[in-house]
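pasting for ref
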Amino acid sequence: RERERERDRERDRDRQRDREKETERERQTERNRQKERETERNRQGEGERERERERDRERDRDRQRDREKETERERQTERNRQKERETERNRQGEGERERERE
């Protein structure tokens, strides 16, 4: 009987040890899943940050293009003014020559 009780206790200890091992395996599995989820979130976050950086670069390119267009408009306006001044000088010069001819 004593040996039987000892075997029963041993069997109970084995079952308890098996349950603890299974519990630890489940915990480890959950930790691994959590790490995978975290890794995926980081990967997605990095992708989002890269998309944000690309949007920033595109915005910078757009601003640069706008500045270049504005600069070109200013240059064209100045060229037009210069032509108008030249035309006016020619008109005045023509008027002066006309008066001299008279």
